[in-house]
Amino acid sequence: MAKIKHNNFMDSIDEVISNAKQQGVIHLYADGKKLNGRKIGIANKELYHFGTTGYLGLEQDIRLKDAASKAIYDYGTQFPLSKTYISHPLYASLEEKLYEMYKQPIVVTKNSTLGHMAVIPTVVRDEDAVILDHQVHWSVQSAVQNLKIRNVPVEMIRHNNLNMLESKLKELNTKANKIWYMADGVYSMFGDFAPISELMNLTKKYPQLHLYIDDVHGMSWRGKHGTGFVASNFQSLPENILLFTTLSKTFGASGAVLVCPNKKFHQYIKNFGGPLTFSAQLEPASVAAAIASADIHLSDEIYSLQNQLQERIIYFNELLENTSLPLVDKNSSPVFYIGTGMPATGYNFVKRLLKEGFFVNLGLFPAVPVKNTGVRITIARHNQKEDMKKLVAAMEYHFPLALQDTQTSLQRVSKLFKLQSNGQGKSTLNESDIYLTYQSNIGAIDKKFWNTYMGNNNICDWEGLQFLFEAFSQNNDKEHNWNFHFYIVFDQNNVPVVITFFTTAIWKDDMLSPLSVSQKMEEKRKVDKYYASQKVTAMGSLFSEGTHQYTNIDHPEWHQAWRKILHHLEITAKKEGSQITVLRDFKNSTSPLNNFFIEQGFIKIQMPDACVIPQITWKDKTKYIQSLSKRSAKHYRKDILPYEELVVVQTMQSLPQATLIKCYQLYKNVKNKNFAINTYTYPFEVFHNMNKSAQWEFILLYPKTGVGVETPLGVMFCYKNSNNIYVPSLVGLDYSQLKKYQTYRQLLYQTILIATAQNFKSIDFGISASFEKKKLGATIIPMHAYIQAEDNFVLERLEIMR
Fold this sequence. Notes:
Blueprint (H helix, E strand, L loop, with lengths): L8 H14 L7 E2 L7 E4 L2 E5 L12 H14 L15 H12 L3 E4 L2 H12 L5 E5 L4 H7 L9 E4 L4 H11 L6 E6 L11 H10 L3 E6 L26 E6 L9 E4 L3 H9 L2 H5 L5 H14 L3 H21 L13 E7 L1 H14 L1 E2 L1 E3 L9 E6 L6 H21 L4 H7 L18 E5 L7 H8 L7 H10 L11 E8 L5 E13 L6 H11 L7 E7 L9 E3 L6 H19 L3 E7 L5 H8 L3 E11 L7 H7 L2 H15 L2 E6 L4 H17 L10 H9 L3 E8 L10 E8 L3 E9 L4 H4 L1 H15 L4 E6 L2 H5 L4 E11 L3 H9 L1
Parallel strand pairs: 3-12, 5-6, 5-7, 7-8, 8-9, 18-20, 25-26
Antiparallel strand pairs: 1-2, 2-3, 4-10, 9-10, 11-14, 13-14, 15-16, 16-17, 17-18, 17-19, 20-27, 21-26, 21-27, 22-23, 23-24, 24-25
Helix pairs in contact: 2-10, 3-10, 4-5, 11-13, 12-13, 16-23
């Protein structure tokens, strides 16, 4: 199995967040000696506060403050004992009041994150299964990770996609005792709701279905006694729902609450729900504030507060209706999301609003898809109508300027969020003297020109791309038919600024995932060949590696050139039905391209290392051995030299048909065993085309007896780049003979000798097996890519399957 380095999802998140922090729009600090909810101080400037999640403003209520203050003096700053032994004196009163609100058994937890960690592993049994809405809160997804240790099946569906949910229910119906669907009641970014009525209809159709709903953003401002959005849909919460909500945010205190109609579950959780047993309990001040808030919730005052908030929500909706601002989801929640599309536009818009005197939240990956960056505005009772009117006026003024500054348009933003557009606002790409050319066939591009700028790499010279175009056209299976896209941007003097090419092809979602993920996926593909696969428009191709673009960084128009390409590519990908775009095989993360691509809505991911011998400086085998480091020379003497005399090597330009068929089977041996780079198996037609091409040759390894009769021990399929680069692209192995002859190591070694003998200047070994290649003198180069997806579903599903 090839040793390979896989991307860590957290590294991708860190890159995006770090970029936003550099822009000065997140990780800010509030200042000032007092807060009143209406305004907030940042960098010694007082701003109107439109970022709170305390929608009813209870965190500033004097009754809650007085109760918390008194509790500190009466009981101390904390009660340092496990709740398993004893709860501090205020807990019983809080639990009684919460029971009175919900008329159902409840459990109070330190916060919702610890609550999910306590409850989910307790109620979900080994014989159960879990289905996650892919936008369910991170704290739920994190708690579910613990279930995988117990081999509980965990699936994920696209956001609020009931057809996909029902499909998963049918799939799990005979395999699981209970099937838990986990979702939010009110989603924190777009402010949209879970389809409770439709979900309840599904529970009637599938009795195994149970709902686990996190309703922390629906609490207090909705429902009888402020019990929240989800509870407002029922006279009494049914037993097949577990409801999590919060005592913080709108409730105004701290902590969280599980409402548990199932008394058996309630007992299990109370008796042993990990963090409930071993974590500290809520501080007396928090419990006292929660009691004061519960008293408000149990009185008619709560409905007055709810109505006051609804008046503000209605007013803010009316203000937005008279603008062209792209409101992503209009509803009755206090959460509003104005789409900006690309992060660069979001950064610009937020900074403009901060400067104008308004604090709003930036919606950023991974909370939203990277192409769905936007501004989240929350409305609370603190906000006055004149404040809202000023904010909308400021947004109306600054939004078009943010679009202009970042060279995008309202029409484009609307498309990214699938919103209706009034047709106004076409691309605001600045006029310049550069122009873009596009071709779908390398044959339409001058060979000398292409090879001058792009030919010095892998199979990306003109001849190699002509081979790929012919090999991956008119095949029987759709995964083996690729569409090519060639881009060249010239300046007014016809000097190329950016040159690149892309292919649209079917990729497996887990192509670069760890082995364990691909093994799970391949089990499902035995039934459905195209399970978890989709069209991807990617720089380069699945067959090529290395640098797939030329960018003249010294040219003043390179930013504009790339914007033109990305804009055209966005339209092209949509026509192709591709939902993921990949810019791949970049070496230097400090390149100016790095921040540019991130601001254009791409997520940086780690790629497997590239392995190259950049320059063959030796003339023969003896000189090569002498060039090796001490460690590599030791490896040669131990693992290669003793086996060298056991084999015979043949280099052939063209193979007899019978031998070609045997070599293809050897390739399939490797492909079927190695999921390190999980792609679809190439068809025989590709190898047939290799056999006809002057650019390809085959290195075959035989045992010393039976050469030309037996099936080879192994084969290396090698491309001869027109710029004198040797490219061993694929390998085939007989695994039954692998250890006896050290076949793979012998093939790597012989490839170096053959490239030397033919006077090639360098060898491009590509990715994977970097450990083995390094031992033979290859240079290891860290690589990364940038991806852009319509949503986070694929990334999050793969992360869940780890």
